[in-house]
């Protein structure tokens, strides 16, 4: 049985390598911190509202972070893995968002589950844009943009 890829593409593949250990370490540390923050939010506001709020706040922070480290400052190479992938990746939780929707359906609220699913995605996309634009506006206001 032949390959689905042409020979020139098969030869071009490079073997996968693990990221450097310092990157793995900062992602792990950041993920632990972000997960603890999310758990604290859940203890404060249990249920789907907590998940929605955490995801929207995390997406605003992702928008701000991406502006700051790509357009405003020259960040250390471990800042993005620590804050973006680790802290904010551990803080935001789209797996819990799906589990919340399943619980809503099982609880007899399928229409609310659909609104929750679509509303979360749309709100989070908007939140990233708001974070980015707010950071850009703040930078301009302070003469940095």
From TrEMBL:
Na(+) is not transported, but it plays an essential structural role and its presence is essential for fluoride channel function. It catalyses: fluoride(in) = fluoride(out). The keyword Transmembrane helix applies. It is a multi-pass membrane protein. InterPro entries: FluC (IPR003691). The chain crosses the membrane at residues 21-40, 52-70, 82-99, 111-135. It is found in: Cell membrane. Na(+) binds at residues 89, 92. It holds the Pfam family CRCB. Keywords: Cell membrane, Ion channel, Ion transport, Membrane, Metal-binding, Sodium, Transmembrane, Transmembrane helix, Transport. Belongs to the fluoride channel Fluc/FEX (TC 1.A.43) family. Fluoride-specific ion channel. Important for reducing fluoride concentration in the cell, thus reducing its toxicity. PANTHER family: FLUORIDE EXPORT PROTEIN 1-RELATED. This is Fluoride-specific ion channel FluC. It comes from Saccharopolyspora oryzae. The lineage of its organism: Bacteria, Bacillati, Actinomycetota, Actinomycetes, Pseudonocardiales.
């Amino acid at each position: 049985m032949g390959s689905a890829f042409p020979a020139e593409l098969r030869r071009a593949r490079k073997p996968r390598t693990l990221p450097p250990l310092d990157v793995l370490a900062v992602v792990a540390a950041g993920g632990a911190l972000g997960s603890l923050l999310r758990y604290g939010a859940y203890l404060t506001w249990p249920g789907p509202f907590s998940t929605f709020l955490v995801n929207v706040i995390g997406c605003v922070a992702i928008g701000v972070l991406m502006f700051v480290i790509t357009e405003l400052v020259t960040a250390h190479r471990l800042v993005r893995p620590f804050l973006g992938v680790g802290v904010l990746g551990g803080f935001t939780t789209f797996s819990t968002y799906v589990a919340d929707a399943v619980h809503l359906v099982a609880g007899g609220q399928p229409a609310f589950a659909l609104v929750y699913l679509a509303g979360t995605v749309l709100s989070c996309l908007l939140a990233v844009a708001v974070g980015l634009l707010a950071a850009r506006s703040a930078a301009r206001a302070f003469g940095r943009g």
